[in-house]
Amino acid sequence: MAEAHAYDVVIIGSGAAGLTAALNLAPRFRVAVLAKGGLSEGSTAWAQGGIAAVLEPGDTFESHVEDTMVAGAGLNDRATVEFVVENAPAAIERLAALGVPFNPGDTERWHLTREGGHSHRRIVHVDDATGLAVQQALEKAAAANPNITLVPGMAVIDLVTGRHGERYSGDGHVYGVYALDRATGRVELFTGRATVLATGGAGRTYLYSTAPRGATGDGIAMAWRAGARISNMEFMQFHPTCLYNLEVKNFLITEAVRGEGGRLINPTTGKRFMPYYDAERLELAPRDVVARAIDAEIKRYGLDYVHLDISHMPADFVRGHFPNIHAKLLGLGIDITTQPIPVVPAQHYTCGGIIVDRKGRTDLPGLYAAGECTQSGLHGANRLASNSLLECFVFGEAAAGHISRHWDELPDPPPIRAWDESRVSDSDEEVVVQHNWREIRRFMWDFVGIVRTTKRLERAQHRINLLRRETADYYGNFRVTADLIELRNLVEVAGLIVRSALSRKESRGLHYTLDFPDALAEARDTVLTP
Asked: CA-to-CA distance for 514 and 434, rounded, in angstroms?
């Protein structure tokens, strides 16, 4: 029988959202935080940019709200945007109190930078490695808390609901998870009165992505299988500027490079091309506009990449603002103080996900979610730069607050059945998992990328249906492995993306289709119900 672990709250994901929730719950409850790999291997530690908040004199909450709504192409929930924006300054203060060393300003408390889509300088940052500094501070605080148990190397398989009880119940209440211990190969049970999904996005559904290896949409797929609604999965944000390098395939060149004066140049013509696509905002246009412009230049001129050039700025300025990028690229033979950076778009952020309210609640009792795995109403059809980490802090705290206030309403977990491996064997066909993984990422890039057509989406859907049946058969016959768990989730999430894209008969924000190039008069969420 697999080992069972009983906690008050089980949190899946050890990034900004998960650790924020854990730290807010720890004064009262025993919390387990499960990470699929190492504790710092999620998207938070990879975030180069900063955190948006109204901190500059003359800036206003209303301005931040409007910038977010404009980027989101009218699909945002205004009440949610206001909720997040108004809670941003306090979130920054709490991070500073935890020891996050935000860059100091010359005259103001912190240095604020400006990124695409923002009308003011409102991005606090730690050089060009904000996420890593935040991750380290949160992780240090969590590790020092006796009520928080950090459990790395646990690949979660599925949510535990009433149907997994020794006495079957169809109420859909979530009581924890089954998870594979990657070191031992054993499936273990983690139970709690409340469960929080903070599993990040689904970037690895695509061939090129800035997301870490583990961003396979696990929380979204698990919530869907358990019965939660999913929304707006067609809105996949492609970061305009990922380093083009055949050896380093997912190194992000932060938005702040363009915010501090970087220019996009066509390497064939030698000309700056953003004036042809957005003459007013140029390189500071929202990411979807810039990504489509780069994609158009690449296709029109048959390029492999375009250039992002900040070498016209003083060398000390460039090294001072972007020390990590400068050092990384110098090691690859590119001196960004004198040379342009070859860049291409890459999948960067999942704007859709599990539907949550402003308390972090999903459709399923006992199940909460926060961060990139959710659709909270904040981002709409396109995420405004540096609102993502902010969402993690605000909703991580909101979910913890609701759990604390309503603790007595959450039932204790019933006796749950142990994981049953009595009718499966070890796989002798691991090549199937690897092949299907590669196939999904390839056709999603080709058919469900920056510019879409109905015919391409239908081709993708056909392949997904075949792979879903094949993967389900494989899952039913062999013991689970970490790769199989991820493949099962990738197939599910790819299907949700394509279904959502096919149902949207317009172009809006990040969803651009040649068959429906105009936006409809009314903005509506795409909602998929299991």
From this structure: 32
> In this predicted model, what pLDDT tens digit does every residue of 381-424 receive, in sequence order?
999 989 999 999 999 999 999 999 999 999 999 999 989 887 77
Cβ neighbours of 300 (radius 10 Å)? 11
SS3 11: strand
191 vs 105: CA distance, rounded Å: 46
β-strand partners of 242: 252, 344
On whether the CB atoms of residues 10 and 367 are closer than 8 A, the answer is no
Q: Annotated catalytic sites, by residue?
A: 287
Q: b/e map of 237-253 (b: 16 or more CB within 10 Å)?
A: bbbbbbbbbeeeebbbb
How many C-beta atoms surround the C-beta of residue 30 within 10 A? 15
Condensed to tens digits (0 to 9), the pLDDT of residues 65-114 reads 999 999 999 999 999 999 999 999 999 999 999 999 999 998 889 999 98
Tell me how far apart the alpha carbons of residues 424 and 421 are, in angstroms, rounded to a whole number: 6
3-state secondary structure of 272: strand
State the first-to-last Cα distance of the chain, in angstroms, to the nearest integer: 31
Residue found under tokens 């790819």: 494
Question: Dihedral of CA 296/298/301/307: which sign?
Answer: positive
Provide the residue type at 306 as one letter: V
Sheet strands (E) in 134-228: 148-151, 154-161, 174-181, 187-191, 194-197
| Rounded CA separation 196/186 (Å) | 22
Do 361 and 325 meet the contact criterion of CB atoms below 8 Å apart?
Answer: no
What global pTM score does this model have?
A: 0.90
CA-closest candidate to residue 454, choices 509, 505, 523, 520: 505
- List C-alpha distances in Å: 451 to 89, 296, 308, 447, 510: 36, 10, 22, 8, 9
